[in-house]
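for the recovery benchmark. tokens below, seq after
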């Protein structure tokens, strides 16, 4: 007999769906462009349904130039 307790089932997103894509890029380097046109390059650590994004090792880019570096960065989304 197995002593492992049953794991709760997660709702699976269809293969190729936007939510599946987003799950697959957590932990990878990404570029996020905000409404003002400023880009943030960094390691995606988490995101939520409102598209709030947390990055590590972040660089801020504007007009093709790196303008700042941040250890951690939180970008507030607006999807709701």
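predicted aa per position
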């Amino acid at each position: 007999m197995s002593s492992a307790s049953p794991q709760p089932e997660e709702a699976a997103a269809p293969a190729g769906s936007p939510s599946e894509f987003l799950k697959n890029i957590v932990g990878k380097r990404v570029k996020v462009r905000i409404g003002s046109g400023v880009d943030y390059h960094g390691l995606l650590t988490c995101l939520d349904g409102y598209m709030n994004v947390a990055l590590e090792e972040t660089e801020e880019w504007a007009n093709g130039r790196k303008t700042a570096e941040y250890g951690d960065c939180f970008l507030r989304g607006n999807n709701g």
